Amino acid sequence: MPIKIGIVDFDSSHCVEFTKRLNHSGIAEEQWVDGAHVVMGCPGTSQLSPERIPGFTEEMRKLGVALTDKPEEMIGKVDAVMIESVDGSVHRERARPFLEAGVPCYVDKPFACSLADARAMVALAQRHHLPTFSASSLRFAPEVVEFVAHSAAEKSKTGKILGATVYGPAPTHARNPGLFHYGIHPTEVLFTLMGPECEMLTCVQVGGERGTETTGVDVVTGEWSGGRVASVRGIRSGRADYGFLAYCENGVFPVSIGTQFIYRELLKRVVRTFEVHEPPIDPSETLAIVAFIETALASGRAGGKPQRLATTSS
C-alpha cells in the first residue's frame, strides 16, 4: 500500500508540483515518484504569500486531494505529513502537533528561520523517535550528487574537494531574512559539497544599504575544519543561474546545475525516509545550515565582521 501523505499549507507551488509527481497526475511519466500518495491537504494561512493559496487550493482539489480547514484533522488519516509553508518562521508551529502525535514530517526549506526553532523541532522529533528531514531540492540535483560521489571515489579524476564557490539566486523576504529564502538553495549545495563542519564565516553585502535585505549580493565565506575555505554567492540583481566551482586536489571544476529533475529526486528521498524512518541527511547538518545562515545575517549586519558559528547542540 502506498504511504498516505498529508500536505500542510498551500502558499508554495511545491504543494501542487509534489502532488503531481506522487499521484502520477498532470505530469510526464519520467517525473513520477512511486510509493506514496497525497490524500489530504490543508490550505492554511500565510503572512508571506496569501494571494497564492486560492489558486493552488483549486489545483489541489482538481488533483483529487481531500481538503480540511484544520491541519490536526489529518492526524489518524495520514501516515506522514509534508509541511510546505514557504514561510520558514512558522514551521515549528506547523510541525509540532504532528510530531507530538507520532506522525513523521518532511519540513520544506527553510527548515526554520532561527537556530532555536530548528533545535526545538529536532529535539521533539527525537523524543518521539521520528525522522527529521528538510532539504532544498537542489541538493539532490543529479549534477551535484554525481560530482560528490565521483570526488569521494578512489583514484577519481577530481580528487577530494578542498573548497568551493557556489552561486544561485537569493531574493529575500522579511519573514525569511538573508539566505533563508531562496538563498537556501545554493547554501544547501555548499554544505553538500563541503559537509557540516563550518567553524567561522564572514558575510560581505554589496549594493544597496548594508545590514538590510536590499543588497544586490551576499557573499558568505566560511572556514571549514581542516583549513578548507568555501563561499556562497547569493545573487539579487542580474541573471542568476545555479552552479559551483569546486576546488579539488586535481584541479578546478566548473559545474552548472539543472533543475529539470530536482523535485523528482527530492521526493524519492522523502518517500524513502517515510518508509524506513531514516533520513538521507543527519539532523546535525540541517542544524548547521540554519546556524550558518543565522550567523551570516549577524556578520552582514555588523559590516562583515567575522563570526564564529553558534553550537548546534540543543
Q: Roughly what is the average pLDDT, rounded to an integer?
A: 94
Total number of helices: 8
Enumerate the spans where pLDDT stays under 50 for 5 or more consecutive residues.
none
| Beta-strand fraction estimate | 15-25%
Radius of gyration: 19 Å
Strand order of the largest sheet: 12-11-7-10-9-8-13
Biggest sheet layout: 7 strands, mixed
Order of helices and strands: EHEHEEHEHEHEHEEEEEHHE
SS content category: alpha/beta
Dominant shape: globular
In quaternary terms, these chains amount to: single chain
Portion of residues within helices: 25-40%
Number of strands: 13
What does this structure look like?
It contains 8 helices and 13 strands. With 314 residues, the chain is an alpha/beta fold. The two termini are 37 Å apart.
